[in-house]
Specification:
Blueprint (H helix, E strand, L loop, with lengths): L4 H19 L3 H19 L5 H25 L6 H16 L8 H5 L4 H21 L4 H21 L6 H20 L3 H25 L4 H5 L7 H14 L7 H13 L3 H28 L18 H8 L6 H8 L1
C-alpha cells in the first residue's frame, strides 16, 4: 500500500511536536508540542475516507483533547498548589499514553487503525508522555502513583487480552502490559525505560510489518493465510516469543535487567504483579501461535495450497533477526 506524500509531511510535524514537548522549559510549551503532535496524527489515521478510520480519529481526538485540557488547566495551579498540580499533570500524561486506569480508549482506537498506525500509536505517540512523566519523578509520592498505575496496567493488559480473536486488540492490551514495565523503569532510572522502549519498538515493528504484509487483522485470517512453509509459523512464533520476554530472546534482556533492579530496590510487590502478568500474556501469545502451527503440520494439514513466502521480504527478515540478539547477551555476560 502506497501512502500519499502528505503522509510523510504530517509525520515530520508529528516528530517535531514530540521534540518541542520534551525540550520545552515550560508546561505551556509542552502543551503546544502535544497539540502539534495530536493535530499531525489525526490525518495519519484518517488519510482514507472510511468510517472505521473516522471513528478511530474522532475517539483519539476527544481523548487527547481531554488530556490536553487537563494538562493546561492543572499547570495554572502550579504556583499556588504545587503537589496537586503535578498530580493532575501526571494523570493527564497517563491518559494520553493509555495507561491504567485511563486505558479505556486505547483498544477501541487501535481497532480502527491500519498496522503502520498501530505501530505509531503504540510506540512513537507514547514517547512524549513517557519522557514528560520521567521529568515528574521529583517526589516519592509521584513515584508511588506511577508504580500503582504500572501495577494496574500490568494486570489489565494481561487479563484484557484473554479470549480475543482480533489481533489489533491483542496488540493493544499487550502494549498496555509493556507500558507497565516502562512506568516501573521510569520510577527508577531514565536509562532503563529508554532501553526497554527501544527494544519493544523494534520487536513490535517486526510484528506489525509482517501483519501489514499479510493484511491480516484476525486470528482466523492469520490461520487461513495459506503460507504453508514451516518458516511462516517459525518467524511469527519467534517474534511473539521475543515480545513476551521469553528467554533467551531479545525481549527478555530488558525485563531481566529491570527485574534485577527492582529486587535491588526491594520492590517485591510490583515484581510479583509484573511477572504474573507476563505469564498471562505469554498464554494469549501462545493462542496465536499454536492453532496454525497444528493446522500446518504434515499429519493435520488439510490445506493443499503451497504458496511462496512472499511476505518474507529482506526488510522483514532483518527486523525478525533482531530477536536473536538476546542469545548474545548471556554469552557476553559469561565472557566478562
Amino acid at each position: 500500500m502506497l501512502f500519499p506524500l502528505t503522509y510523510f509531511l504530517f509525520f515530520f510535524f508529528l516528530v517535531m511536536g514530540i521534540l518541542i514537548s520534551i525540550s520545552s522549559p515550560s508546561w505551556f510549551g509542552v502543551w503546544i508540542g502535544l497539540e502539534l503532535n495530536l493535530m499531525s496524527f489525526i490525518p495519519l489515521i484518517s488519510f482514507k475516507m472510511n468510517s472505521y478510520f473516522s471513528e478511530a480519529a474522532l475517539k483519539y481526538f476527544l481523548i487527547q483533547a481531554m488530556g490536553s485540557a487537563l494538562l493546561i488547566s492543572s499547570s495554572f495551579l502550579f504556583i499556588s498548589v504545587t503537589f496537586i498540580s503535578l498530580s493532575l499533570i501526571l494523570f493527564s500524561l497517563l491518559l494520553k499514553m493509555g495507561s491504567a486506569p485511563f486505558h479505556f480508549w486505547f483498544p477501541q482506537v487501535m481497532e480502527g487503525l491500519l498496522w503502520p498506525q498501530v505501530f505509531l500509536l503504540s510506540t512513537v505517540q507514547k514517547m512524549a508522555p513517557l519522557t514528560l512523566t520521567s521529568y515528574l519523578m521529583i517526589s516519592e509520592t509521584l513515584s508511588k502513583l506511577v508504580i500503582i498505575s504500572a501495577i494496574l496496567s500490568a494486570m489489565i493488559g494481561a487479563l484484557g487480552g484473554l479470549n480475543l480473536m482480533f489481533l489489533r486488540k491483542i496488540i493493544a492490551f499487550s502494549s498496555i502490559n509493556h507500558l507497565s514495565w516502562m512506568l516501573i523503569a521510569i520510577s527508577m532510572s531514565d536509562t532503563f525505560w529508554l532501553f526497554y522502549f527501544s527494544i519493544y519498538s523494534v520487536i513490535l515493528l517486526s510484528i506489525t510489518s509482517m501483519f501489514f504484509k499479510l493484511q491480516t487483522f484476525t486470528l482466523s485470517s492469520l490461520i487461513k493465510s495459506d503460507q504453508t512453509s514451516s518458516l511462516f509459523p517459525l518467524i511469527i512464533s519467534l517474534n511473539f516469543f521475543s515480545l513476551s520476554g521469553l528467554p533467551p530472546f531479545t525481549g527478555f534482556v530488558p525485563k531481566w535487567m529491570l527485574i534485577q533492579a527492582m529486587l535491588d530496590q526491594s520492590l517485591f510487590l510490583p515484581v510479583f504483579f509484573l511477572l504474573t502478568s507476563a505469564l498471562i500474556t505469554l498464554y494469549f501469545y501462545l493462542r496465536i501461535m499454536i492453532p496454525f502451527i497444528l493446522i500446518l503440520s504434515p499429519t493435520m494439514s488439510f490445506n493443499s495450497k503451497f504458496k511462496s513466502l512472499s511476505f518474507l521480504s529482506p526488510s522483514i527478515i532483518i527486523k525478525s533477526s533482531f530477536n536473536f540478539l538476546g542469545l548474545l547477551f548471556p554469552l557476553y555476560s559469561l565472557l566478562l
